[in-house]
TrEMBL record:
Keywords: 4Fe-4S, Heme, Iron, Iron-sulfur, Metal-binding, Nitrate assimilation, Oxidoreductase. Residues 119-188, 379-443 form the Nitrite/Sulfite reductase ferredoxin-like domain. Pathway: Nitrogen metabolism; nitrate reduction (assimilation). PANTHER family: FERREDOXIN--NITRITE REDUCTASE, CHLOROPLASTIC (PTHR32439:SF0). The gene is LOC103335269. Residues 197-353, 457-569 form the Nitrite/sulphite reductase 4Fe-4S domain. The lineage of its organism: Eukaryota, Viridiplantae, Streptophyta, Embryophyta, Tracheophyta. Pfam families: NIR_SIR, NIR_SIR_ferr. It comes from Prunus mume (Japanese apricot). It is an enzyme of class 1 (oxidoreductase). Its cofactor is siroheme; [4Fe-4S] cluster. This is Ferredoxin--nitrite reductase, chloroplastic. Its EC number is 1.7.7.1. The keyword Heme applies. It comes from the Eukaryota.
Length: 585
């Protein structure tokens, strides 16, 4: 893609945007900047990668001390499996044959992640999880039915999960089926390309985009264009597929910050400047086992037309200059720390079309004093006579029949559209108010996916856990539901409490932003024997006063979590113990 790339967007009417302009700037936008480094040598700013035959490769002079994953990429370009149709040959080869050489094993376990395919070697050998690209979490009934048809054929091995990036992951996939699945995805307008490993993850936006009476800007055009740029319209974009590590992006369109900008590598924060609409920028937010960091201001503003060029410039700066040694120190924030925020900003500006980058605007459109709304339940849209209905999907897990029924309900009562959220729930938009009563009586809403879940259930998030994920230390989804049900029998809660469960320190379920978080670990029971446990986190916040939670208690055996959570809810969240019924154990 040329450096002069620019996309024309229609800016929102300033008449609706300007009343917000005088609001105090978003808290995160005034977070102290990363220190400015003045000692970066010119040699350090030499790009570490170069283009060869259409792909970006690490230069020989920078290959000392690189990690194992970088060596796998050097040995064979992962994107060739897709772009040069290597997947056809892999799909025809037996697993037994593929296991005979390190190269083909690396194809299975590493390179296929560039196609969104994750081999579950440890807990689901021979089966793959497939992660899609679903910008802004918007999908259709046709797409949902197709995904249901894929997982149905795998019986008990097949299921689907809503992820914490507004995305689908489907499970049970076997390698011989992949070429046909990829063709089917393309026919319904979906792709799984570049959704794993050292790639840009699903662009997140406001789940209420275009229908929210209070929205700042409709994020869907921006997230769609970002996804189209990143994957070159699902054909593959090798210019951004050899990053040092994974990379997350979001576009904020709500005062509620449903998009969680503070934990993204790049977040677009709506702001006007001299009568023009655009975005201030936050950079560097991430989670990892060894470090978690909130995004910091880049002190930069771009117009709506420069959303893609800016994304391209940031990605190329990270691709060119990011280190590739210890995987725990290769996320973009480590590069920002090394160069200093001004040094990093200069490298981004250097890669902009005219080598210029405007300073941040003081006219933030996100209101700081804003009570975060709940989208679960029935809510009026900005379109007269229409409502959206937010459904609670328990820990984000669905079966094929669930997906078919959701698609049917979306067709019958809405426009066939469904929206996934970062809290692993689903919204049905565009429901005529005259149809609401009938929709709420549907068995699917009565028995499976309630628009009126309990307070604790509606804030529950859980990663895959060790049922399928080889990195997870504990089982999460079923345990999260069981513990929450038991806690609800002990206390009554009157205000929202978000509880997140993650199976390991990779924190896919983002426990640090939860009110109460559970990170899987090994613990010891009262007899000193090893057992599944959790480090318990407390105090995470989302929204304009975002804050990462801290460890409250380490290595708690899972069987001891219920009384601990009850105690936390009473002491910190105003919960009231329930009176036991007479005769109840």
């Amino acid at each position: 893609m040329s450096s002069s790339l620019s996309v024309q967007f229609l800016s929102p009417p300033l008449s609706s945007a300007l009343p917000c302009c005088k609001q105090t700037r978003l808290a995160a936008a005034t977070t102290p900047l990363a220190p400015v480094s003045t000692d970066v040598e010119a040699a350090r700013l030499e790009p570490r990668v170069e283009e060869r035959d259409g792909y970006w490769v690490l230069k020989e002079k920078f290959r000392g001390g690189i990690n194992v994953q970088e060596k796998v990429k050097i040995q064979k370009e992962p994107m060739k499996i897709f772009m040069e149709n290597g997947i056809e040959e892999l799909a025809k080869t037996s697993f037994e044959e593929l296991e005979k050489s390190k190269d083909s094993k690396d194809d299975i376990d590493v390179r296929l992640k560039w196609l969104g395919l994750f081999h579950r070697r440890k807990n689901h050998y021979g089966r793959f999880m497939m992660r899609l690209k679903l910008p802004n979490g918007v999908t259709t009934s046709v797409q949902t039915k197709y995904l249901a048809s894929v997982i149905r054929k795998y019986g008990q091995d097949g299921c689907a999960d809503v992820t914490t990036r507004q995305n689908w992951q489907i499970r049970g996939v076997v390698l011989p089926d992949v070429p046909e699945i990829l063709k089917g995805l393309a026919e319904v307008g979906l792709t799984s390309l570049q959704s794993g490993m050292d790639n840009v993850r699903n662009p997140v936006g406001n789940p209420l985009a275009g229908i929210d009476p209070e929205e700042i800007v409709d994020t869907r055009p921006y997230t769609n264009f970002l996804s189209q740029y990143i994957t070159a319209n699902s054909l593959g974009n090798p210019t951004v597929t050899n990053l040092p590590r994974k990379w997350n992006v979001c576009v904020v369109g709500s005062h509620d910050l449903f998009e969680h900008p503070h934990i993204n590598d790049l977040a677009y924060m709506p702001a006007t400047k001299n009568g023009r609409f655009g975005f201030n920028l936050l950079v560097g937010g991430f989670f990892s086992p060894k470090r978690c960091a909130e995004a910091v201001p880049l002190d930069a503003w771009v117009s709506a037309d420069d959303v893609i060029p800016l994304c391209k410039a940031v990605l190329e700066a990270y691709r060119d200059l990011g280190t590739r040694g210890n995987r725990q120190k290769t996320r973009m924030m480590w590069l920002i720390d090394e160069l200093g925020i001004e040094g990093f900003r200069a490298e981004v500006a250097k890669r902009m079309p005219f080598q210029e980058l405007e300073r941040a605007s003081s006219e933030d459109l996100v209101q700081k004093q804003w009570e975060r709304r709940d989208y679960v339940g029935v809510h009026p849209q900005k379109q007269e006579g229409l409502s959206y209905v937010g459904l609670h999907i328990p820990v984000g897990r669905l079966q094929a029949d669930d997906m078919d029924e959701l698609a049917h309900v979306a067709d019958k009562y809405g426009t066939g559209e469904l929206r996934l959220t970062v809290e692993q729930n689903i919204i049905i938009p565009n429901v005529e108010n005259s149809k609401l009563e009938a929709l709420l009586k549907e068995p699917l809403l009565k028995n499976r996916f309630s628009p009126e879940p309990s307070i604790l259930m509606r804030g529950l998030v859980a990663c895959t856990g060790n049922q399928f994920c080889g990195q997870a230390i504990i089982e999460t989804k079923a345990r999260a539901l069981k513990v929450t049900e038991e806690v609800e029998r002990h206390v009554a809660v009157t205000r929202p409490v978000r509880m997140h469960w993650t199976g390991c320190p990779n924190t896919c379920a983002q426990v640090q932003v939860a009110d109460i978080g559970f990170m899987g670990c090994m613990a010891r029971d009262e007899n000193g024997k090893p057992c599944e446990g959790a480090d318990v986190y407390l105090g995470g916040r989302i929204g304009s006063d975002s804050h990462l939670g801290d460890v409250y208690k380490k290595s708690v055996p899972c069987k001891d979590l219920v009384p601990l959570v009850v105690d936390i809810l009473v002491k910190h969240f105003g919960a009231v113990p329930r009176e036991r019924e007479e005769g109840e154990d």
